[in-house]
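Need a sequence for this fold. Nothing fancy.
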């Protein structure tokens, strides 16, 4: 019985293949091969998109964490300010009662009590002045955070080891590693340098009132007989002036807004005894300078 089934299957298969021309069969094989290749290609693209999605999700998680920390600190500060305001209101509410009691006890004269009252009123005026300053500082902090977000958005997904943007004590810092900007031990720029500086320049051009300082930093490895460079002081200064010239000549930033400085090896951010530490110290730092003239004008206006 089994033999009969096998014979029928063999005869059926032969009949089917005999009905298909060799050309048609080759065409179908080619289509199958193409579809297989397309499928493999789509699988590769799918894996790449999955990796990009993971990176994007990691960046979002990191940003959300930083935002949560900032909101927590802000809430703590607001709670402290609210507590101080309650204490001030309590003192102001009770100052008249205290003065009347002092008069009744003849501890102070009427003129002395009036002088004390004026002093307490001045404290109230200073309190308003302090609140105005707090509001100005909060607005400045908001502007700094907006500037940081604009810079991060313009620069994109570059590794934090290569470019780092942060706010420290009300000042915005942009640290760019030397491998993104310069050839090793040189102040000649790399092909990627203008692309990175162009993205930074786009944000700085959108803020025409901001002045900034470009600092060159090196590690502690000494310069050995490199033509045109005397030492690390010389290298750091020349790297800073190279960046300033690119921002001015290529991207049109007003030179009056810029200052170039070299810090050599003396302001490290990491340990110079390790390769990673030295790599972190070799950097160009752009410092967004605080607008002190506007702050002093604010003081003069409120006093």
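Here you go.
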């Amino acid at each position: 019985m089994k033999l009969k089934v096998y014979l029928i299957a063999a005869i059926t298969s032969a009949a089917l293949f005999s009905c298909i021309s060799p050309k048609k069969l080759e065409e179908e094989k080619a289509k199958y091969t193409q579809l297989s290749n397309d499928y493999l290609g789509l699988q590769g693209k799918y894996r790449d998109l999955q990796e990009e999605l993971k990176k994007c999700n990691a960046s979002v998680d990191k940003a959300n964490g930083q935002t949560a920390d900032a909101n927590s600190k802000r809430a703590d500060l607001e709670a402290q300010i609210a507590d101080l305001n309650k204490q001030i209101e309590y003192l102001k509410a009770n100052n008249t009662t205290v003065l009347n009691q002092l008069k009744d006890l003849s501890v102070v004269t009427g003129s002395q009590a009036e002088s004390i009252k004026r002093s307490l009123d001045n404290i109230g005026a200073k309190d308003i002045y302090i609140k105005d300053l707090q509001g100005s500082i909060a607005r400045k902090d908001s502007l700094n955070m907006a500037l940081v977000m604009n810079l991060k958005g313009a620069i994109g997904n570059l590794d934090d080891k290569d470019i780092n943007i942060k706010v420290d004590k009300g000042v915005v810092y942009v640290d760019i590693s030397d491998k993104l900007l310069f050839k090793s031990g040189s102040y000649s720029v790399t092909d990627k340098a203008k692309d990175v500086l162009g993205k930074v320049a786009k944000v700085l051009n959108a803020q025409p009132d901001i002045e900034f300082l470009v600092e060159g930093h090196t590690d502690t490895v000494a310069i050995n007989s490199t033509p045109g460079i005397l030492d690390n002081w010389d290298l750091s200064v020349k790297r800073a002036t190279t960046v300033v010239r690119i921002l001015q000549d290529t991207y049109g930033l007003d030179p009056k807004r810029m200052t170039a400085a070299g810090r050599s090896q003396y302001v490290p951010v990491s340990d110079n005894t390790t390769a990673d530490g030295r790599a972190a110290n070799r950097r160009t730092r752009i410092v967004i300078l605080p607008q002190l003239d506007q702050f002093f004008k604010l003081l003069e206006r409120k006093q």
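For context: Residues 74-143 form one domain.
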